[in-house]
Amino acid sequence: DLFMERSFEDVTLASIAKASGVSHQTVLNHFESKAGVVRGLAESLAQQTNAARHAARAGDVHGAINALVGEYELMGDANVRWAMSADR
Prior knowledge:
Layout: H1 2-5, H2 13-20, H3 24-31, H4 34-55, H5 61-86
Helix pairs in contact: 2-3, 4-5
């Protein structure tokens, strides 16, 4: 949720740990770095996106549109925010 709401630079390992209800050291042990957390997040989101895409059968236009809109609703704002922070 933090990465969806804030830019990469504005998220700290301490804030990730606090939001997750674990210690800073636990986050480091599991992910090794903030970039590791992002990789884990990306893998999780990719699995969710792939599942949604495959839920629509061939020829199911309504299902395909729902999957596409759902994917945008999940990631659209975060993608824009991250793209804008990359320009800094």
